[in-house]
Amino acid sequence: YAFCGCDRLTSITIPDSVTVIGSSAFNGCQNLASVTLPDSVTTIGSDTFAYCDALTSIDLPDSVEYIGTGAFYGCTALTKIDLPDGVKSIGEDAFAHCYELAEIDLGESLESIGNDAFRGCRGLTSIELPDTVKHLGKYAFAWCENLTELNIPVFLKSVGQRCFDGCSKLQLMDMSMLLEGQKVLAITTGGYGKRTDVAEYTVQLRGGQGLKNYNITEKTGKVADCKVVDESDDILIISDDGTIIRMDVGGISIYGRATQGVRLMTVSDGAKVISLARTEREENTEESAETPAEE
Q: Is the pTM value of this prediction over 0.85?
């Protein structure tokens, strides 16, 4: 709270000895328009520049590694932000309600965007998320009303609840890199399965009849589970009698959507396949695994 509420402060130069700018250090400095940070700063703390209404831009040195919770919350005049490549995490509410924020460069090492991080940034029209991003928090981009375009990172693992809530103009979410080379793996209760190119599952308009995913027969049984997989995966096939087998995805045949596939698992009388799980490849495994049988 070093300079919190100093509404006559218009500019500040941080000395070279500073490594961390503490919580709420300049919170509420409504006329602060110019901030110079040294290369020694590694952390922008919680609410550090919150409600600095006159701040239109800030140059973050390459030394910065962390943007804290609410660091620039409510900086309504902020129009541009460039994150250094060293930043791996953006805290909750970090840039929430920066209404004029129109340009953001998220660097090349970012892994996590916290809850509500860019909530209400209505000046944003497009966002380029680096491939390193693994987690998008709840409401991370909620109510970015003018956001129309966004890409999905290759290594994204989780997307929080209502991450894009209120993004009424969002029309294009580029998932091409995420799905490139991947297949839809379907498994039936009778132990039959197949891989099908993702491209065969075309987008249907509202009111459309959908697409046939599997040619179901008495022999195959109903579809038990589906997963998007790639050549580097193994899968675990699980039946309701407790049997589990592990299989190399690359060994499973590729067929079109409306086909029966091949037998992947032999189920005992009265048993049925109930699910499959995608897992990382296990090299030189000695576990028993069935070889898909062409029929």
A: no
Strands 89-90 and 112-113: parallel
> The tokens of 163 are what?
């991450």
Q: In the numeric block, which tokens belong to residue 276?
A: 């499959």
Structure-token pair, residue 91 = 């805290």
pLDDT tens track for 249-259:
999 999 998 89
Lateral strand order in the sheet of 262-263:
223-229, 183-188, 192-197, 262-263
Helix (H) or strand (E) segment spanning residue 174:
strand 172-174
> For the chain, how big is the Rg over CA atoms in Å?
25
Angstrom distance (rounded) from CA 97 to CA 25: 19
Question: Using CB atoms within 10 A of its CB, is residue 40 exposed (0-12), middle (13-18) or buried (19+)?
Answer: middle
SS3 24: coil
Residue owning tokens 């402060």: 9
Separation of alpha carbons 143 and 53, rounded Å: 20
